[in-house]
Amino acid sequence: MLQQTQVDRVIPYFERFLARFPTVGALADASVEDVLGVWRGLGYYTRARNLHAAARVLVERHAGRLPDDVDGLRALPGFGRYTAGAVASIAFGREAPLVDGNVARVLSRLFEIEGAPGDKAREALLWALATELVKGERPGDFNQSLMELGATVCTPSSPTCLLCPVRASCRAQASGRQGELPPPRKQAPRKRLELAVALSARDGNVLLARRAERGLFGGLWELPALPLAAGENAYASLRELFGKRATIGPEMLVLERTLTHRDLVLRVFPVALPPRLKTPPGGYVEWRWVPREETRTLGMSSAMETALDEALPTQSPKVRKTKRPK
Ligand code: SF4
Question: What structural domains does the chain harbor?
Answer without folding.
Answer: 97-186 (1.10.1670.10), 191-311 (3.90.79.10)
